[in-house]
Structure formats: C-alpha cells, structure tokens
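RESIDUES AND SHAPES:
===
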Amino acid sequence: MTDGPSVQRTLIVFKPDAVQRGIVGELLARFERRGLRIAAMRALQVDRSMAERHYAVHKGKFFFDDLVKTITASPVVAVVLEGPSAIPVVRAMVGATRPHEAAPGTIRGDYALVGLRNLIHASDAPETAASEIALWFPEGVIEYTRDVERWMTEEGAP
C-alpha cells in the first residue's frame, strides 16, 4: 500500500452570481468528475450576521462591506467536498481570486469576468476549512464511501 495524499474536507460556496446564472450544477459537476465526494450540501439565504462571521478575517479592510453585500444579495449553495488533497485540488480548480488573473480551464478563468463576481468561495487551508465547515454545517457532514473511489486512488486499485 502506498502512502498517498491525505483525505481532506473543504468548503465551497457557490455565490449569488453562480446561483443567479444557473450554473451551480455545471460547476459542481466539475468537482465530482475530478473525483471529489459531496459530504454535505445546502442552499440558503445568507444573513448579514453569518456573512460577517464568514468574512471575519477581512473585517476592517476596504472591501469587507462589499463582500457582505454580495454574498447576502441572493441565495447561495454551500458544499463540503472530500477527497485526497481536497483543499489544494479545489483551489487549483477554482483559480485566482481576481477573474482576469484566473487561468483558462479554471472555474473563474472559464466563467467569471470581474471583481466580486467570481462565482465561488473555497477554503484556503485546513484550519480555515475546519472553521468554515463548522460555521456553514453545524449539524455536521455525512460519511460514506463510493466503490469508484478505489479506482481513483493508489490504495484501492487492483
């Protein structure tokens, strides 16, 4: 058995612009096709209090109010994804924060154009992922396995 990358959980939030454009399913499918597993998912309207907790690290910065205003403007879809090296894998798939800097082939590089309309939030580190998952999914996540996973990892394939 080979020591492969550790299994991680990460949070993604499809922001109001992704929901309003009707592309959440298309974007989520990219993560599933990559091999990541959905461990929790919910659609919700984010209130100001939750938005401020989510973006607390940015409190006091000039763009904080715009972040809060944007994420509370319309419903979002929050998802916990799980898989080997999920955090760096998801971050690479999402692309640079500024859409005009995001590489083609990334979600933001393929679908976003400007500033705060960058479609998706993704946790940036294990500690951030743990606290964000606890905030967005206080009831926890589900655990299950899929047979296909043994065909996507070094540990399980014959």
The chain has one domain: 7-151. The longest helix spans residues 24-34. Helices lie at 16-21, 24-34, 48-54, 64-71, 86-94, 107-111, 126-136.
